[in-house]
Write a structure and sequence with these properties.
about 425 residues; alpha+beta; 14 helices; about 65% helix; about 5% strand; elongated
Amino acid sequence: MPLPLALPATSAERTQQIADIDAALASKGLRLRFIPWLEKSYEEHRSVARNRSIARYLVIYLAAKLLFLWCNLQVGSTVFRVSITLRLGIVLPLTVLAVYLLLGPFPAWVKGLAAFAPLTAETALVMLLGRLSGSAVADRYVFAAGVGIFAQTLLMPAPFRHSWRGLLVNLVLFCSMGLVVWPGHFGPRISSDYLVFVVGFSLPALYERHSRERSRRRDFLLNELNRMHVEDILTINAQLSRLSNMDPLTGLFNRRYLDAALVRLCKVAFSKGRWIGLLMIDIDRFKELNDTVGHQHGDFCLEQVAQVLQNSVRVGVDTVARYGGEEFCAILPDADEQQAAAIGERARKLIEDAALPGVHGSVLTVSAGAAAIRGRIGSRFRPQDIVANADQALFAAKRAGRNRVISAGQQVTPETEAVLTRKIPKSATH
């Protein structure tokens, strides 16, 4: 049967995907999330590398904060004791847990909470140390906490939806611990100038995070669009290449592919000293069939014979092609002449048993010639030699009365030809 050319670029599903990507690229709003299938694809593309980057950021951030323990010691023993106790007892375990969750198979919302938990705890700790240190150096701790909030908003590669939520929680905590007068020994309120400074600089940082993610998402969409177009082109080219090697009527390989495959397979066989067999098959009295029954029935017979031949050979090993007109050819790797003839006989028998209408009320039959060679690199054998041998055997089968398989090594004399002719069913000679 003729092979249709499927164009994936015009399929309904691919067309809709491209339309969705184009719509996402054309969007001018602040909203970042895509429609569900695109969002899922984006997360699958980005999540693994992004979570690893977040985990690295948390480790580096914690290491930097541990270096400040020496500064806490300079402020006073109480501040140092609280600092080392809470960092090693709360912030460090939260960081380890966050890294574990980020690198494991956990839901996205769990990873989002895990990413900001140690950072929020660190903000609370620094603000607490500022209240404990007294008014002389409290503003320094407030400034350090503000820089931490600014840095995590700007530098940590978390999704924007997690970044703004984390920033909001940190700012609420930062402002509440800085502005509220705590009872007991937590000291006076911290200067509001620092609070305004931190809030004022965090919002541009958040906007920068939004711009970066929007840029990454746009790059993803453009890459997806390009990937789809490339896949479509490769698929179409592969189909065109395949069609150029196929016979449109029978769906078998054509003569062009057969010649190239024979050269290639002969080289492999010769390099390893193996046999390679060949069958030449011809439909008996096909011209007479076309002239008496019609070309439409002739085409039907060609399709049926091609299907039987495909079912007669070894799947995934042998190559069947339409040689031209009503003639077919099969390349049989690792098959000697006897094995090639056996495969040809099986095909001949199946075609005869199919009882396709032939000429003058007879059934359709085929004749076949089998040949095989086993050469080596540098030997005198050429790929066309085996074709010539099989073609001569096919001619001998035709001359012997048709509906038979003859091997190239089988000698056909006038006496043996008469014997062979008597084996043909009477209806096949009409």
